[in-house]
Amino acid sequence: MFNNQKLKKIKKITVALVFTFCVTLAQAQQDTDNKVQFGARAGVNFSTITGDDFEDPNSRTSFYAGLVAESFISEKFALQGEIFYSGQGFDIEETTFAGVTVSPAVEFQVDYIQVPLLAKIYLIEGLNIHAGPQFGFKINEEVDTDPTGDGGDFDTDRIKDFDFQLAAGAEFKLTSGFFIQARYNYGFSEVVEDSDAHNATFSAGIGFMF
């Protein structure tokens, strides 16, 4: 759970990012006569940690949700900024020996505020591919030894506060304003100091442009 110190940290980061996000988009709208669309998106994350220092842990299933702004440079090309909450981390399943459980399942929870800046190319009407840098700001980190219950949570502080990533995906927009999308994010920053460990997340979800 979030304590008061973490909530204050989340509030400061979110306010700063939202302010920067809005100022940047407002400036972009002033600099071009092309339209700017705003929206929201949400969906499911399947995240894990990759690298030589981790033995392929299982993915953690969580969710993401946030805001979107898309500025069209031309009919086929657009720039998109986003800010969203992203639940990430990984799972370690329980193991058994001779039919007896010898270690419990553990969920390592690492949650971020993510800010991607994407270039979008429309291949046909409604269908685009997109890619760009993504900046992750850690807001929570804990281990849950009882993922299916209410207890078992304890705080840790092993993961770095910032993660630089590359995001790439595909999206299809419906004429009603709804869209569906899938995306893969890979972190180039070391998740833990002096270790070969990187965030990797596949996400899928829906959204709506207002």
Topology record:
Layout: H1 4-31, E1 36-50, E2 58-72, E3 77-92, E4 95-97, E5 100-103, E6 106-124, E7 127-144, E8 153-155, E9 162-173, E10 178-187, E11 198-209
Antiparallel strand pairs: 1-2, 1-11, 2-3, 3-6, 4-5, 6-7, 7-8, 7-9, 9-10, 10-11
Radius of gyration: 19 Å
In the CATH scheme, what's the topology name? Porin
How many individual helices? Answer: 1
Order of helices and strands: HEEEEEEEEEEE
Uncertain residue segments: none
Task: Give the CATH class.
Answer: Mainly Beta
Q: Strands of the biggest beta sheet: in what spatial order?
A: 1-2-3-6-7-9-10-11
Beta-strand fraction estimate:
over 45%
Protein name: Porin family protein
Domain Outer membrane protein beta-barrel: 27-191
Pfam families: OMP_b-brl_2
Organism: Aquimarina gracilis
